[in-house]
Write a structure and sequence with these properties.
With 316 residues, the protein is an alpha+beta fold. It has 11 helices and 10 strands. Helix 1 crosses helix 3.
């Protein structure tokens, strides 16, 4: 009982700390919450416990009453949502992101309309971007076409102006989720060449009909998020779990802890035959590492989108 109440108290304090619903008055409220639990201000244990439970229940109701929205002051890179139209095999996507990144805070914003012929869809690549812990990666999927077109889909937190990413905040309804469609030179380059993250690209062995079904599932997910905004959750609804929710709608994929430990996804996909498992996993990882292939490029020594996509696939 006491352990559960202690965890609930910590959860309630963290929810208040992240959202600060009372502004600066939030801090003394958290202090009072802690004192009620730790020392008590009532004469009986039962009274103290019931008061704490009532307060925590109020915090819980308040937090889960928060509604996601698409109407906020968004940061530029997540300001737009993709809109699509399908005519036969041709998909037209509005708001494909193709920013020119100079630094993490300097960029030329570009949102473009592009067309993709699903009859020419012929490749699917997994991209992992690791910024710290090797077990945790941001996960993206890149679809390639025989005519040279490519588009990357990425589930992302939709940060408001002034917000910073916090994995803890992702447990407490701090961020909405969005789905970005982007040029590889934008969404991969900014991770490998601007932020200095370690980026890996793995070709996937997937039938073309499955690629097509997954592509269309992404478009349906974009429609759903545009019409019904949703919260990002660090554990249950993140950049990787959202992909596998879509993928399982078109293919039977077993549940595996490595979907949560996303830095280990290549091992999982090798085990089920989606990544070539005939090669040594470490050798596979070395070949997949794109940073050395493109590290010489920056805004004063630029590279075209076509050449960037070609370079990151060398020796694969």
């Amino acid at each position: 009982m006491q352990t559960g109440l202690g965890l609930w108290t910590a959860w309630g304090a963290m929810a208040l700390l992240i959202h600060k619903p009372m502004g600066m008055a939030t801090y003394p409220t958290i202090a009072a919450l802690t004192l009620i639990y730790a020392a008590g201000i009532y004469q009986t244990k039962t009274a103290r416990t019931m008061s704490l439970v009532l307060l925590l229940a109020t915090i819980s109701v308040w937090l889960y009453a928060q509604k996601p929205s698409n109407d906020r002051a968004w940061q530029d890179e997540v300001a737009m949502q993709l809109v699509h139209e399908i005519q036969g095999d041709v998909v037209t996507i509005q708001n494909v992101r193709n920013f020119e990144w100079i630094s993490e805070t300097e960029y030329v914003p570009r949102w473009q309309t592009r067309q993709y012929d699903l009859a020419q869809l012929d490749s699917l690549d997994l991209i992992l971007s690791i910024w710290s812990n090797d077990n945790i990666a941001h996960t993206l999927m890149s679809f390639g076409f025989a005519d040279g077109e490519r588009v990357v889909f990425s589930f992302e937190i939709r940060k408001e102006i002034g917000e910073q990413f916090s994995s803890i905040g992702g447990f407490f309804r701090q961020y909405e989720m969005t789905l970005i469609a982007a040029d590889e030179k934008d969404i991969i380059y900014t991770r490998s060449n601007v932020r200095g993250e370690r980026v890996y690209l793995y070709p996937l062995s997937v039938p073309k009909d499955e690629m097509r079904a997954l592509f269309l599932a992404y478009l349906q997910a974009a429609d759903a998020l545009r019409h019904t905004p949703s919260w990002y959750n660090t554990l249950s609804d993140n950049c990787t779990t959202a992909i596998f929710d879509l993928w399982r709608s078109v293919r039977d994929i077993p549940k595996d802890y490595r979907v949560l430990a996303s830095g280990r996804l290549p091992e999982f996909l090798m085990d089920i035959g989606i990544i070539d498992g005939s090669k040594d996993p470490q050798a596979n990882k070395s070949r997949a590492f794109i940073n050395p292939k493109v590290q010489q490029y920056h805004h004063q020594n630029p590279i075209t989108s076509h050449d960037f996509s070609k370079k990151i696939r060398e020796d694969l």
